[in-house]
Amino acid sequence: MTQAQATYGRGAGAYARMGVESGVMSASPHQLIVMLFDGAQASIRAARLHLEDGNIPAKGAAISKALDIVNSGLRAVLDGEQGGEVALQLDSLYDYIARRLLDANLRNDASGLDEAERLIEDIASAWREIGTTTHP
How many angstroms separate the CA atoms of 82 and 17, rounded? Predict the structure, then answer.
């Protein structure tokens, strides 16, 4: 890699981080949750690709990122008082997704990744639908 390519790569990375930070700073609470869903799904897709390529350390890192999003992002914002039964059911579902991701990581199981991604997409699509009805 040439010096120019390395410099360009650092600049492009900084620009991308700035774009993400700007997007987060200007996002509504609803959009932030959508971003969490998107990030979890992207991490699961990356884990699947790394698994297929036999890159086990990268697979583990991608699954760890998805787990962090599910546990420290999606589960952390649930409000049991305002959300009531729905929040409790989502918490239980997020717990199940996290366990499926852990199991997929331990067993190198693509079907566990598929199930976790499908469940996240089911919730995400419902969440996106709420956004279109409340924010025209």
Answer: 33
CA-to-CA distance for 125 and 33, rounded, in angstroms? 12
At residue 92, does pLDDT exceed 70? yes
**Which residues, in sequence order, are CB contacts of 75 under 8 Å at separation 6+?**
91, 94, 95, 98
Q: Which amino acid, one-letter code, is at 61?
A: A
Please write the tens of the pLDDT for every residue from 3-13.
444 444 444 44
pLDDT for res 51: 97
Q: What is the DSSP string of 81-127?
A: HHHHHHHHHHHHHHHHHHHHHHHHHHHT-HHHHHHHHHHHHHHHHHH
Q: Is 28 helix (H, G, I), strand (E, B) or coil?
A: coil
Q: Which residue has the higher pLDDT, 1 or 89?
A: 89
- Cα distances (angstroms) measured from residue 6 to each of 19, 45, 50, 54: 20, 27, 25, 27
pTM, 2 dp: 0.78
Distance CA 46, CA 62 (A): 6
